Amino acid sequence: MAVVRAVSDLDVVTAARQRIINVFKNGLPVYLSFSGGKDSLCLSQLVIDLIQEGKIDSSQLIVLFVDEEAIFPCIEKTVYDWRRKFLLAGAKFDWYCVEVKHFNCFNALTNDETFICWDSQKENVWVRRPPEFAIRSHKLLRARVDSYQNWLARMCADGITIVGIRTAESIQRLRNIALMNHSGKKITGKKHIFPVYDWKDNDVWLYLAEKKVEIPDIYLYLWQSGTSRNRLRVSQFFSVDTAKSLVKMNEYYPNLLDRIIKREPNAYLAALYWDSEMFGRSSGKRKKLEGIIDRDYKSELLRLFGNIDLYFDTPHKKYIANSYKKFFVSVSAIADEKDFKSIYEGLISGDPKLRTLRALHIRIYERYANKAKIERRRK
Fold first, then answer.
1. Least C-beta-crowded within 10 Å: which of 18, 102, 130, 288?
2. Regarding the domain with residue range 12-210, which homologous superfamily does it belong to in the CATH classification?
């Protein structure tokens, strides 16, 4: 199904406010997933304003922050500041420092491709210490097994969760929300609502500026280091998106990389290979260093898929490779060289959550469908 965009006479701020009000009208507990990032700050400011205007009941609100341990100091400061704001507004703020599981892009060379936040077996090398008031366990959490998404879905099942997800940051999100609206559903199966889903990057930065919301310094540092505006994303250190920026950020946060390497020794890979296929880079400098001239990406993919056990040496990497192989077989007749290059880059860089693969699926098949429609009209 093609994504159809509808024009509204409401601006995005007014629409988001109304969505939040509608959520609170259900009378159920409302969970706000807070991260300290720019989208989360927009959602939080909207909620704070509505509480102060008396349009929603703060006693229904539970703010959830799952501390991932490996976060920038400015993000931690932002969360402290907003915790105080929510508590003063009469809401509950739960700050969790628990053993949840993440994918660790630095451990691609080992058979353990996970990072356990606040790992009780590695307390002596934690990146930082948890706050004294932090919640350290929960009866519904399967410690060291659950991702925080799976755990929170169980914990928040009695209410509705509002999340600062925007479709502008991911074609998969746009597609999924479009499908929800097409089927008449306005909420996910996990009872998630996305009040700012239709905001663009400009909407986010303009709103934060107009509301005089203090943003974490990391965004300014990333911008100063040459990161494009649509790539200003912040997450825990061992995800692919943030890992490749660690070398640049060491200039702004002295000794941070040393602490990270102490926690996860394989993080030295960021210093050595940040401008490489490992982190999905395709810069001119990388091509020059690696001697890349012109590559037959379809042939390269056939070579890799021909012996997955040889080229992909961990269970997770084999799973990703097999997923890419099935996709490659299904689209090989309609894909072009640019598509094969994108498939190759996604496969080599890891794509732990298969986000790139899903985006490629949408891109290639929608292009094929649109081309077929044009051909039929010509006939």
1. 288
2. HUPs (3.40.50.620)
